[in-house]
Amino acid sequence: MTYNGCMKTATRAEYELYYWPGIQGRGEFVRLSLEEGGADYVDVARLPETEGGGVRAIMRLLGDEREMHPGFAPPVLKCGPYTIAHTANILQFLGPRLGLVSQDDVQRVFTHELELTVTDFAAEIHDVHHPIASSLYYEDQKTEALRRAGFFVKERVPKFLGYFERVLGRNSESEGEYLVGRERSYVDLSMFQVMSGLEYAFPNALARLHDKIPLLRALRTRIAARPRIAAYLASERRVPFNEHGLFRKYPELDVG
Amino acid sequence: MTYNGCMKTATRAEYELYYWPGIQGRGEFVRLSLEEGGADYVDVARLPETEGGGVRAIMRLLGDEREMHPGFAPPVLKCGPYTIAHTANILQFLGPRLGLVSQDDVQRVFTHELELTVTDFAAEIHDVHHPIASSLYYEDQKTEALRRAGFFVKERVPKFLGYFERVLGRNSESEGEYLVGRERSYVDLSMFQVMSGLEYAFPNALARLHDKIPLLRALRTRIAARPRIAAYLASERRVPFNEHGLFRKYPELDVG
Description:
The radius of gyration of chain A is 18 Å and the shape is globular. In chain A, strand 3 and strand 4 (82-85) form a beta hairpin. Chain A is 48% helix and 6% strand. Chain A contains nine helices and four strands; from the N terminus they run βαβαββααααααα. By secondary structure, chain A is mostly helical. Chain A has two domains: 3-97, Glutaredoxin; 105-226, Glutathione S-transferase Yfyf (Class Pi), Chain A, domain 2, CATH 1.20.1050.10. The mean pLDDT of chain A is 96. A four-stranded mixed beta sheet of chain A has the order 2-1-3-4, sandwiched between helices. The interface between A and B is large, with 48 and 48 residues.
């Protein structure tokens, strides 16, 4: 079985994204790739319930007992009869289809490796405001969050961003303009999202690293200026940052 | 560029694994696949320093400024001139080479998706004993760990194991014997490791779910009985569980 049957029909978009409609969250990494790749897609849960959208659409998908390959959690991508979940897995799947990854095998593996490191970083960013349990409100784990934030800002942000800056600096093929190879790939889009989210949620932490991450800052600007990304960011399809997502503006956690 | 040049020479094993020598940790998922696949490999950091081993070997690799594709953290796999990091990425790379994944594209993507969910679960398991910072001792974040453990045992363990049990139950191709397709794949080996680790670290939590996860329990037994895995587990190559790794026996966290 291959993905040959994964194509659009007269009545259905080629790709259907299932993700929480009110936040950027992890789904945003997928949205950015779909947008930059010019994909024919529907953000299903952002449709009205009367048109088959809303959170109900996600619940219906996750609860479908006939699904042989159920996803653990959103985001989930439907593509014809196929169901593909987990952000980095979806991006690896979309990369070659949307021209968002190198044709070179070795570079593809490294692009995915970097995306998995973005995934780990995103989980740590989430857990700064939710160090005890995802099921608890932030307010009910604020004491622990304050303690975790100190280590996150002092140790983890410099470690992750320092790593990605180093990877950019070593990529002679694009003279540090992109993370892998000569062209922008999906992980550059993901890195744009991380930088944007950090500026929203941790502006002080980011300002302190300003001089150490010139290539990352330039990458962010470069991606934001790409025509399809710029159009997306200016559209209503881009959900604004808010305090229900991955990146939350809680100034008390952005410890100087 | 492809991986064609990735083969053994007279003086060097085909695969070199770089991982902390004193723990199972995330490296154990890679070790299990190398063992089951009958790979020609060296667990570099477990060699004496006089033979180029020890933690120094890892530091040398991570600090190599000529490396175009540096890994963020161990485990790192060297294969000829190539460097591949991140557990799930390494397993995806090894799968087809060691006969540890289906030949079917759709099943390969799902196998990787499941492995990424194992990765997320492993991170949550780690953070039960390290909810504030990896750089702090457990004893210095024990209060927060105790609070996190309650939610982990009550909410997260049933959610993750319930999911994998469901995936097994839906796999009619192997009548629930394996997670994907007809044969064992690397994610079955990883699930064996998760079940073994949970029994070591959270025996009460696991016992409470006993009746709800018959297929997972049978999978664990089935994998442990495979000749190469059984030989590995009985050998000195298998580092015993201990309180420096991912799965730690802290009875106070195994809340009933």
